[in-house]
Each structure stands twice: as structure tokens, then as C-alpha cells.
Specification:
2 domains, two-stranded antiparallel ribbon, mainly alpha, Four Helix Bundle (Hemerythrin (Met), subunit A), 8 helices
């Protein structure tokens, strides 16, 4: 499955979860797993705003622009506005359109943490969005089931690199799952999450 296709599936899955957030949930304090590299707990709105920020950068990143060329503060602060659900959907749509228009997966993308081929950049952000869709749904009490195509695409992308990424702290310790378990449960175990079959959902 093409990197672009898996990215779009992951971003749409996250957008589906965000679209279910109730008005009285936006200010709720999230567990530390959602701290996005910080040490202080974040509100749900801050977590979603962080993903909106990431999506807002996708078109410029895939166009080969550096953050300094664009302006590092272009998407700083709260960019969700008065209607966070609708605003987030707009950023998702623009990111997905840019990804679908990508004609060269080997094009260099200038991330804040180094230069990478667009293909690898998409792997990184796809894994974050796809698993965050699951984590948010679990935390908020929504159905956490990811689309079958997305699960398959993420499994194909992450299986070769998961142990290496685990050394960098991207994933927690692998949870052993039976080879004949549903693929989503195997994906959860691969990314350090307790499979649903073991009673976590």
C-alpha cells in the first residue's frame, strides 16, 4: 500500500475521532501519554491543537520548504478557533490533499529534526496519527476500532521498523500477541499497547 494512501487513512481516522468530541470534553485533562513530549498534562483541546499544527505544516513540508522559509511561528498558538471540530477537519483536508498530490515520495522534506525523504516523513506522521486515533478513542470512550485498510497499511509499514523506533522511545515494550490474533491486536502489541482481546477494550 502506498505511503500516501496510508497517511490519508490515518488522518481521516483521527479526524473521525475528533469529530465525536463533545463540547464539554474539550477542557478535560488528558493522561501523560498525551503530553506530546512535555512534562505537564495537557487539555484535550491542546492535544488536538498539536495535531492540527502538525497537519498545517504538511503542505509546506511536502513542497520542500524549510520552516525558516515559511516562518517558524506561522502555525504557533491555538489554531482551532471557535469551532475546533470544523477547524481540525479543514487542516486534515488540506494535509490529505497535499499528500495525495505528492508526485515524488523521495523528495526531501526539511523537518525540524532533520532532512528525510517524503516517504519516511509520511511513515512517521502516519504512525503517530493512526495510533493517536486509537488512544484518543479509548480515552474518550469511543469505538477504538481502526479501519481494516489502515491497520493493514500500518502493519506493513511498522513491522520492519518498530523495534528500531522502540529504541528511540516511540513505542513501549512489545506486547506478545498470538500469530493468529486479529491484525489490529497484533498491531497494538507491536506498538506497545495491550491488545483488546486481553481485556483492555
Amino acid at each position: 500500500m502506498k505511503e500516501q494512501d496510508v497517511f490519508v487513512l490515518a488522518d481521516r481516522a483521527l479526524d473521525d475521532v475528533v469529530g465525536q468530541i463533545k463540547q464539554d470534553q474539550w477542557d478535560m485533562t488528558m493522561p501523560n501519554i498525551f503530553a506530546m513530549g512535555g512534562t505537564e498534562p495537557l487539555a484535550l483541546r491542546q492535544v488536538v491543537n498539536g495535531h492540527a499544527h502538525d497537519d498545517a505544516w504538511v503542505p509546506d513540508m511536502l513542497a520542500g520548504r524549510t520552516m525558516s522559509e515559511v516562518g517558524e511561528d506561522k502555525w504557533s498558538g491555538d489554531i482551532l478557533g471557535d469551532n475546533p471540530t470544523a477547524s481540525f477537519a479543514i487542516f486534515v483536508n488540506e494535509a490529505c490533499e497535499a499528500v495525495e498530490a505528492l508526485d515524488d515520495p523521495e523528495r526531501t522534506v526539511h523537518c525540524s529534526f532533520g532532512d528525510y525523504p517524503a516517504r519516511e516523513y509520511l511513515w512517521q506522521v502516519t504512525a503517530f496519527r493512526g495510533m493517536r486515533a486509537y488512544d484518543l478513542a479509548m480515552e474518550l470512550g469511543f469505538d477504538p476500532t481502526l479501519p481494516d485498510e489502515l491497520v493493514t497499511g500500518m502493519w506493513e509499514q511498522l513491522t520492519p521498523v518498530a523495534d528500531e523506533w522502540r529504541q528511540y522511545g516511540v513505542f513501549g515494550p512489545r506486547v506478545e500477541v498470538a500469530d493468529d490474533a486479529p491484525l489490529m491486536d497484533r498491531l497494538l502489541g507491536l506498538t506497545g499497547r495491550q491488545p483488546r482481546a486481553a481485556g483492555s477494550a
